[in-house]
């Protein structure tokens, strides 16, 4: 049961105005289509972008993959094979239709792999290097919001995020409690996890890329930062449809406020379900890396609403922390 205490407005909660574009093919997908059928040894415009993608997500670690190097060499072919194996595709080492489709999907910004200084594979689930986790004394974690997307009501965001936290709580020894943003600076009540919506370069060394591709990213325990790209078409509705009013409403830093604007309707096809992405990112905040199992919430690509955990997710969290009581 939820109980709410109404405060007078003293200070406004920070909102970020999204710049979501109309649904269209991402520029990187168009680049990949232009590379379809490229042979090893060729130099073609766009290979540098492919190298940057493979490096960003842990598949290419050589130093010769700068953006101005459009040479499709053996290292790129091998990196593509690693990507295809991780994503359960045919390991052709080619820019084929299946690979273009997979790389074109929205996804998490955390790397997938598996290098000596990257993720550690255990079964299908993974951990960060060194398997960092929360201390044994930290099983009651608190969280709060540093900012919200202007087009989302704070109440809906809080509900979606709370549902995601509770899903992990049900299969682990963790409990989660939201701290209202008004109390963020209480020295005795500091949150363990801080969530927020941000645009492009937002000061953590991992800039977002605007609409499409990277949706969110999270740092390993016990950092506690969990960031969403504000420019994505987020939805907080239970079905993926978001019928509502433009503007925002919800808890400000010290109270409730609502702004009214023209009605907006977002289609289920193009929306990104906030609860699904939050469920994935909270897995990272607890110490899980990406899984090779497509049904897992920790699979790196977003393919639609997924609000439950697979057995692989449960096995991963319990391998890291032990079984729930």
UniProtKB/TrEMBL annotation:
Instruction: Show the GO MF annotations.
Output: metalloendopeptidase activity; zinc ion binding
Query: Known Gene3D superfamilies for this protein?
Result: Collagenase (Catalytic Domain) (3.40.390.10)
Can you cite an annotated GO cellular component? Answer: extracellular matrix
As to how many cofactors bind and how, the note says:
Binds 2 Zn(2+) ions per subunit.
Entry binding sites for Ca(2+) 3: 209-210, 229, 232
Motif location (Cysteine switch)? 106-122
Spans traversing the lipid bilayer: none
Which residues are recorded as binding Zn(2+) 1?
202, 204, 217, 227
Give the residue range of the signal peptide. 1-18
Q: Which UniProt keywords apply?
A: Calcium, Hydrolase, Metal-binding, Metalloprotease, Protease, Signal, Zinc, Zymogen
A GO BP term, please? collagen catabolic process
Residues at which Ca(2+) 1 binds: 232
Enumerate the cofactors the protein uses: Zn(2+); Ca(2+)
Which InterPro entries does the record match to this protein?
M10A_MMP, MetalloPept_cat_dom_sf, Pept_M10_metallopeptidase, Pept_M10A, Pept_M10A_Zn_BS, Peptidase_Metallo, Peptidoglycan-bd-like, PGBD-like_sf
A UniProt-annotated Pfam family = Peptidase_M10
Q: Where does this protein hold Zn(2+) 2?
A: 108, 280, 284, 290, 298
Task: Give residue ranges for domain Peptidase metallopeptidase.
Answer: 130-323
Family matches, as SMART domains: ZnMc
Question: Which residues catalyse the reaction?
Answer: 281
Q: Which PANTHER family match?
A: MATRIX METALLOPROTEINASE, METALLOENDOPROTEINASE 2-MMP-LIKE
Q: Give the similarity note.
A: Belongs to the peptidase M10A family. Matrix metalloproteinases (MMPs) subfamily.
- Designated name of the protein: Peptidase metallopeptidase domain-containing protein
Q: What is the lineage of its organism?
A: Eukaryota, Viridiplantae, Streptophyta, Embryophyta, Tracheophyta
